[in-house]
């Protein structure tokens, strides 16, 4: 026999079979060994049966027709009052709209940071610049031409020949001497002429992007 | 963290493994009946470096070639390639203004940078092939994959024109007259603007509004091709898709022409932006259109103020060429922008390095 008796509430719940499984096992062990509590359980079950039988029959004093009319009238009054007050939000909706709002904002802010990071890491600066210019053009309402592939370009400059792609560039001709002449061909080639100081020999280097 | 270190270690190991053995990394392919032979083709001071998925090849070497034909060689073009397709993988090295007799040797300096994928299979890193050899009788030998026959023939014709010009000055005015002419040429060369210009195949990115730009033309009276009218799309810093109508006013069919394009910078100064080669089929008296899907882009903070074209060379159906005479190039606008020929630059360098006597001796050679 256990030293502590279950509370009256636990015994009542146990008698009606409404206790949780663990609590029910614990109470059942006690009730088996405790005559006092076993008696209380029998009493609760008896009361339950009485209440059950009483609830199955309508009291004779009740005027069902009148009760139905009062209930209908109360419902109409409630609806009318609700229309006067305006929409009523349940607590659940309040939580969804108000309580969760900052969390949603946090999630979207995180996603934004991730997307900006991915853009910064993977997109060429020339494209970022182009997108910025498009954004400004759209904002100010100036005409915007079609956006196309920037392509590969080859540049001839006093420094030599450089191939450019996606904002990156690489010099492809001599780094040791300056050309005496450079030119580009619209067929996608650039030329640089170099003169050897020792031999006086002219060398023409052509780089092709096609 | 451990995972990151592992990945970095693997990448570093991969890069080290990818470093090729330079020996045998350059291969020179010459046809069996080639008029030149290779005496030496070392790796020289060349080096390689791996950057991401690409290998950068810094080629610094010199091939020693021998003229194994019975004719004098005037020009040679070698195709140097690390890969066929990707930009930066293919280049050529040309040596104009040569005078190499039978059995004589000459160097061809290769000093350029090429790109190729790190994992491009076995075999040499760089392949050098003969694209063409031009002889003193203007005959040509080679695969001509790069149309080097045209380039080398034009260089040789320009060389003959300019040597003839300086020889005529020497005969008429003596060494003092020649020296005066050399000063004028050197001054013109020093004043010629040398801006950076980009050539882009196809349409370039441009969000600026475009306008139709009417192309002006420099009339070269002796030119067999007469430009009639031309237009291009222009924004502030780009000109693209130039199209023009031309007429063949010679009595021979024309199969190729090259236009020079002069742009005007914001200060109003003209500069030669580039050349536009075009294959055409023009019978005598016929007109035709030339349209090119290309873009010329001027450097940052520059704007295109105007565009002027001129005919810089023409190839007839029979394989002969026309180039502008010295008189035509004396035009004020042309003389300011057109680069001197490789031969003129070579002659001027001889004068600058060795003086008027050496230049006179050089002009007497051939």
- Between the first and last Cα atoms of chain B, what is the distance in angstroms? 72 Å
Helix count from the secondary structure assignment of chain B: 6
Number of strands of chain B: 20
The chain-level structural class of chain A is: alpha+beta
Task: Please tally the β strands of chain A and state the result.
Answer: 6
Percentage of β-strand residues of chain B: 35-45%
Order of helices and strands of chain A: HHHHHHHEEEEEE
**Which residues of chain A form runs of ≥5 with pLDDT under 50?**
none
The largest interface is:
A-B, 61 and 60 residues
Helix proportion of chain A: 40-55%
| Major sheet of chain A | 3 strands, antiparallel
The shape of chain B is globular
Question: What gross morphology of chain A would you assign?
Answer: elongated
Describe the structure.
The complex is a heterodimer of chains A (210) and B (366). Chain A is an alpha+beta fold and 210 residues long. Chain A contains seven helices and six strands. The radius of gyration of chain A is 44 Å and the shape is elongated. Chain B is of the alpha+beta class. Chain B is 26% helix and 40% strand. Chain B is built from six helices and 20 strands. Chain B has helices at 2-18, 148-191, 326-329, 332-337, 342-354, 356-365, and strands at residues 26-29, 36-40, 47-51, 54-67, 73-81, 90-95, 105-117, 126-135, 140-141, 197-201, 211-214, 216-217, 225-234, 238-248, 254-264, 270-282, 287-291, 294-297, 307-316, 321-322. The model of chain B is unreliable at 10-20 (pLDDT under 50). Chains A and B meet through helix 7, strand 1, strand 2, strand 4 and strand 5 of A and strand 6, strand 7, strand 10, strand 16 and strand 18 of B. Strand 1 of chain A pairs antiparallel with strand 10 of chain B.
């Amino acid at each position: 026999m256990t030293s502590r008796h279950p509370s009256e509430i636990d015994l009542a719940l146990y008698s009606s079979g409404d206790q949780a499984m663990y609590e029910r096992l614990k109470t059942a062990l006690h009730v088996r060994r405790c005559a006092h509590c076993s008696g209380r359980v029998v009493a609760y079950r008896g009361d339950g049966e009485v209440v059950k039988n009483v609830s199955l029959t309508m009291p004779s004093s009740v005027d069902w027709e009148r009760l139905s009319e009062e209930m209908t009238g109360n419902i109409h009054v409630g609806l009318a009052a609700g229309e006067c007050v305006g929409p009523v939000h349940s607590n659940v909706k309040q939580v969804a709209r108000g309580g969760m709002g900052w969390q949603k904002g946090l999630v979207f802010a995180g996603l934004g940071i991730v997307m900006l990071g991915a853009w910064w890491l993977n997109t060429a600066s020339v494209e970022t610049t182009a997108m910025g210019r498009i954004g400004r053009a759209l904002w100010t309402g100036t005409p915007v031409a079609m956006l196309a592939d920037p392509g590969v370009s080859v540049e001839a400059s006093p420094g030599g020949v450089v191939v450019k792609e996606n904002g990156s560039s690489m010099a492809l001709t001599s780094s040791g001497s300056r050309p005496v002449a450079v030119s580009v061909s619209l067929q996608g080639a650039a030329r640089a002429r170099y003169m050897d100081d020792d031999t006086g020999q002219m060398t023409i280097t052509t780089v092709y992007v096609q | 963290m451990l995972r990151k270190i592992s990945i970095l270690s693997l990448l570093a190991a991969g890069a080290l493994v990818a470093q090729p053995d330079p020996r045998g990394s350059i291969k020179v392919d010459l046809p069996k009946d080639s008029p030149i032979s290779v005496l030496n083709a070392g790796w020289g001071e060349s080096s390689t470096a791996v950057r991401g998925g690409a290998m950068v090849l810094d080629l610094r070497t010199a091939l020693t070639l021998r003229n194994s034909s019975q004719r004098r060689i005037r020009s040679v073009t070698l195709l140097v390639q690390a890969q066929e397709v990707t930009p930066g993988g293919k280049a050529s090295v040309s040596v104009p203004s040569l005078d190499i007799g039978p059995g004589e040797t000459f160097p061809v300096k290769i000093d350029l940078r090429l790109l190729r994928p790190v994992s491009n299979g076995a075999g040499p890193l760089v392949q050098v092939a003969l694209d063409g050899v031009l002889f003193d009788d203007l005959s040509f030998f080679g695969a001509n994959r790069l149309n080097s026959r045209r380039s080398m023939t034009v260089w040789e014709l320009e060389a003959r024109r300019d040597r003839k010009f300086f020889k005529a000055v020497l005969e008429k005015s003596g060494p003092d007259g020649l020296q005066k002419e050399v000063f004028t040429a050197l001054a013109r060369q020093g004043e010629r603007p040398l801006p950076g210009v980009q050539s882009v195949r196809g349409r370039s990115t441009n969000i600026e509004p475009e306008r139709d730009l009417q192309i002006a033309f420099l009339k070269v009276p002796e030119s067999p091709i007469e430009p009639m009218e031309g237009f291009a799309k222009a924004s502030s810093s780009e000109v693209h898709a130039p199209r023009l109508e031309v007429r063949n006013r010679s009595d021979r069919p024309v199969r190729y022409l090259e236009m020079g394009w002069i742009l005007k910078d914001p200060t109003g100064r003209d500069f030669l932006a580039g050349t536009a080669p075009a294959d055409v089929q023009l019978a005598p008296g016929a007109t035709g259109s030339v349209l090119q899907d290309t873009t010329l882009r001027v450097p940052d903070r520059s704007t295109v103020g105007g565009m002027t074209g001129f005919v810089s060379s023409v190839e007839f159906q029979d394989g002969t060429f026309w180039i502008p005479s010295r008189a035509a190039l004396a035009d004020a606008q042309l003389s300011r922008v057109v680069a001197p020929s490789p031969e003129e630059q070579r002659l001027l360098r001889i004068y600058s390095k060795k003086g008027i006597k050496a230049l006179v001796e050089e002009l007497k050679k051939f």
